[in-house]
Amino acid sequence: MSDNPTITVQQLAERDQQNNVEIIDVRTPMEYREVRAAKAKNIPLDVLDPHSVMKSRNGSANEPLYIICKSGARGAKAQQKFIDAGFANTINIENGTEAWVSAGLPVVRGKKAMSLERQVRIAAGFLVLVGALLGIFVHPYFTGLSAFVGAGLMFAGITDSCAMGMLIVKMPWNQSQDGSCSV
């Protein structure tokens, strides 16, 4: 991660008892709908605009803004977006929603959804299989599809950025119908 400020879910729960905290959840709308911290508001990382978020805060612009995701990685990326935009008073919640749920803190549960990681594994596996089968039965050049997907997976692992995941998250079945993605 980075040297930017973080907080554990237990520390945040204590802080919330002293004064009201504001939490934004930067996961996808489908992840947010499945389970979320009860106080969290969904603003997915791919549409996050730090200036709009800070402008919409209810008189609490000087108070810290807490950022949560699934495990902390996307939260750190969102936090860096705020810092790059000139808003340093942001705190990433360590280990994200997973830690929140494990700590028994208040959550809202909704419809169970297939995780983005699982969808990426299915799509990548399908493309590798199709490339291999086409390479065997149609023309050897089709094995290039399998090689391309393999290279993409390696690149995603090295850079912690997945183009296939960014594409899959935009698919209609991964969009929320309840408007939970509003700023």
TrEMBL record:
<dbReference type="Pfam" id="PF11127">
    <property type="entry name" value="YgaP-like_TM"/>
</dbReference>
<keyword id="KW-0472">Membrane</keyword>
<feature type="transmembrane region" description="Helical">
    <location>
        <begin position="122"/>
        <end position="142"/>
    </location>
</feature>
<dbReference type="InterPro" id="IPR001763">
    <property type="entry name" value="Rhodanese-like_dom"/>
</dbReference>
<feature type="domain" description="Rhodanese">
    <location>
        <begin position="17"/>
        <end position="109"/>
    </location>
</feature>
<protein>
    <submittedName>
        <fullName>Inner membrane protein YgaP</fullName>
    </submittedName>
</protein>
<dbReference type="InterPro" id="IPR036873">
    <property type="entry name" value="Rhodanese-like_dom_sf"/>
</dbReference>
<dbReference type="Pfam" id="PF00581">
    <property type="entry name" value="Rhodanese"/>
</dbReference>
<keyword id="KW-0812">Transmembrane</keyword>
<feature type="transmembrane region" description="Helical">
    <location>
        <begin position="148"/>
        <end position="169"/>
    </location>
</feature>
<dbReference type="InterPro" id="IPR021309">
    <property type="entry name" value="YgaP-like_TM"/>
</dbReference>
<dbReference type="InterPro" id="IPR052367">
    <property type="entry name" value="Thiosulfate_ST/Rhodanese-like"/>
</dbReference>
<keyword id="KW-1133">Transmembrane helix</keyword>
